[in-house]
Design goal:
Blueprint: H1 2-17, H2 30-37, E1 46-50, E2 62-66, H3 71-84, E3 88-95, H4 109-119, E4 125-128, H5 130-140, E5 146-150, E6 160-166, H6 171-183
């Protein structure tokens, strides 16, 4: 009887002795992450909307979120949030290689170029070689945060790189102020 009671007690308490298996935390909701980050991001921060092969970078200032969503949808959502903000505007960079990606090597490339062109109409867009953009991001991440939103896009050189700038202070206003400082004998930089 005593052995039976001991065995029963062991079975009753054994599950509490075995360590619980660690369950990975749920993936962050990318829309919530964008909403949470927008008030904190400012001039010189970056938001990247990247294709599925974009590498996970290791710099401490870079946070990568898997969206499991289409690139156009993610970009549209990010631009909507930037446009609604009072403090930042987008300076958009795209890979200079994209216009040269043919449909026979990457089906859908031409359709993507047309769709992205329509979506970005009215925004300043600069084209740079992919390796130069990556170097700019690596340098910026040493001092400023970069939010990477990884999409399910499977066409090369389609990533959209958004460098945030101040919405309420233009480059022209900055240049005028610096000229006044210089005229007044103050160091302008």
């Amino acid at each position: 009887m005593r052995k039976t009671l001991l065995a029963f007690s062991f079975l009753l308490f054994a599950p509490s002795i075995v360590p619980a298996q660690s369950v990975p935390p749920p993936a962050p909701n990318w829309r919530e992450k964008v909403a949470e980050a927008m008030p904190l991001l400012g001039h010189r921060n970056w938001i990247l909307i990247v294709d599925s092969a974009y590498p996970m970078q290791s710099a401490p200032g870079i946070e990568t979120i898997e969206t499991d969503a289409g690139q156009i949808d993610v970009l549209r959502h990010v631009l909507y949030n930037i446009d609604r903000s009072i403090h930042v505007r987008p300076d958009i960079l795209m890979d200079a290689e994209l216009p040269f990606v043919p449909d026979n090597d990457a089906p859908g490339a031409a359709a993507y170029r047309a769709e992205i062109s329509d979506l970005l109409r009215g925004y300043p867009v600069e084209s740079l070689r992919h390796d130069r953009i990556i170097a700019n991001i690596e340098e910026a991440s040493k001092h400023f945060n970069v939010l990477v939103l990884k999409t399910n896009m499977a066409i090369p050189y389609t990533s959209v790189f958004i460098r945030l700038d101040c919405k309420y202070w233009s480059a022209d206003a900055e240049a005028r102020m610096r000229a006044k400082m210089k005229a007044a004998g103050q160091p302008a930089n």
